[in-house]
Write a structure and sequence with these properties.
The complex is a heterodimer of chains A (about 180) and B (about 190). With about 180 residues, chain A is an alpha/beta fold. Chain A contains four helices and eight strands. Chain A has a four-stranded mixed beta sheet with strand order 1-4-3-2. A four-stranded mixed beta sheet of chain A has the order 5-8-7-6, with helices on one face. In chain A, helix 1 (about 1-15) runs antiparallel to helix 2 (about 20-35). The longest helix of chain A has 17 residues, at about 20-35. Chain A is globular. Chain B has about 190 residues and is of the alpha/beta class. Helices cover about 30% and strands about 25% of the residues of chain B. Chain B is built from four helices and seven strands; from the N terminus they run ααβαβββαβββ. In chain B, the strands form two sheets. Chain B has a four-stranded mixed beta sheet, covered by helices on one side. In chain B, strands 1-3-2 form a three-stranded mixed beta sheet. The chains are: A alpha/beta (about 180), B alpha/beta (about 190). Strand 5 of chain A pairs antiparallel with strand 1 (about 50-60) of chain B, so a sheet runs across the interface.
């Protein structure tokens, strides 16, 4: 970390990084440093999965998605990470300690378009802790979006008709 | 915050504080601001997601996809069915990383056949106007150069740098997969 910041200072001194960029980068780096006792355990071989880092979600209007995921699913808008085209929405453990986020983006034409994938993520399911059927259903009903509900497991369409599932540990568990 | 950082930079530029002092001061200040922001976050909404439960990934050959994700991320395969296989992000009984609630399972990915029979509960849905264009995965002890070399040695396609802290690559079906350590997070990405 020290080396990272020292490199930034060096880049600032040499003019590679301007004052504004320096301030932003130091603030972010320092936050991660403070937050992070990074995973120290090395996998016995290859990679050790910690979890989903982020989900990159592209839609016609990122602000509409941002507000829905924040107000309905309780994701937290990340301060300083909304540039009018995209926003980061945090949930789970703290950033730098295993937390995840959704990047809500407004679709734009990429400079270097990729060939379309043959595969698709057709839905994402999120775990709700302390599940309560009535509370979950009331929360979804208030959104006015279509949903289907079973005990411990609901499916709802977000504002762009992307399927979102919410479940508890009994209903969605890899070993059950 | 930026005004404070600018003032400290001025002091550094004028030689009033050392490089060491600059780094220490900015680190402490940034941490304090972050802690305050978290403490004053908006009131709790009715629902609050705890973690990704699973990703449902559909492709032309789910066994091939399952094998690729197992190989690249060291994941076991469970619950093999005619049209899907499940890959938990850990072993049975393990807790998700830094999650203390006992009712939050490990995240998992289900690799599914694109041409599987439709689920009657979800049939008739309108076509979404949104798409998930890539997924980022967090791995422990991420070292970009080492991971890049390992992936290339495994024959992974289109491995490329992504920002300061991550790599991107293509899975066997051309889906964009990002991989990073904990340094890539909501505060540093974008």
């Amino acid at each position: 970390m020290e080396r990272f910041i020292a490199d930034l200072v060096k880049n600032y001194e040499s003019g590679k990084v301007d004052r504004r960029e320096f301030c932003k980068t130091v603030a972010l780096a320092a936050t991660v440093y403070a937050a992070g006792d990074a995973a120290k355990a090395q996998a016995p071989r290859g990679l050790k999965m910690i979890g989903i880092n982020h989900i990159s979600y592209t839609c016609p209007d990122y602000a509409k998605a941002r507000d829905w995921y924040a107000s309905v699913l309780g994701m937290e808008k990340t301060a300083g990470k909304d540039n009018g085209q995209r926003a980061n929405l945090m949930f789970g453990p703290e950033p730098g300690k295993g937390g995840s986020f959704v990047v809500a983006r407004t679709a734009t034409r990429p400079a270097n378009p990729r060939p379309p994938a043959q595969s698709v993520v057709d839905h994402v399911c999120y775990t709700i802790s302390n599940w309560n059927d009535a509370r979950v259903e009331a929360g979804l009903k208030a959104t006015g979006r279509p949903y289907t509900a079973r005990s411990g497991n609901v499916n709802v369409l977000d504002p762009f008709n992307y399927p979102v599932q919410l479940a508890n540990i009994e209903q969605e568990n890899p070993w059950i | 915050m930026e005004g404070f950082v600018a003032a400290k930079l001025d002091e550094f530029d004028r030689g009033k504080i050392s490089r060491r002092r600059l780094i220490e001061t900015l680190t402490l200040a940034a941490t304090a601001v972050y802690a305050t922001d978290r403490a004053t976050a908006a009131e709790s909404p009715p629902l609050k997601v705890a973690l990704v439960n699973h990703i449902s990934y559909s492709c032309p050959n789910f066994r091939q996809a399952g094998d690729w994700y197992s190989k690249v991320f060291n994941l076991d395969q469970v619950g093999l069915k005619d049209t899907e296989v499940t890959l938990p992000f850990g072993k049975m009984g393990e807790q998700p990383y830094n999650v203390t609630a006992k009712d939050v399972p490990l995240t998992f990915q289900i690799c599914r056949a694109l041409d599987r029979p439709q689920n009657p509960r979800t049939s008739g849905r309108p076509k979404p106007d949104a798409v998930i264009d890539h997924i980022g995965y967090t791995v422990a002890d991420f070292n970009r150069e080492r991971v890049k070399a390992d992936l290339i040695a495994m024959g992974v396609k289109n491995v490329r740098d992504g920002g300061l802290y991550s790599l991107h690559m293509d899975d066997p079906f051309g889906f964009d997969v990002q991989i990073s350590g904990l340094e890539n997070n909501a505060l540093t990405d974008g």
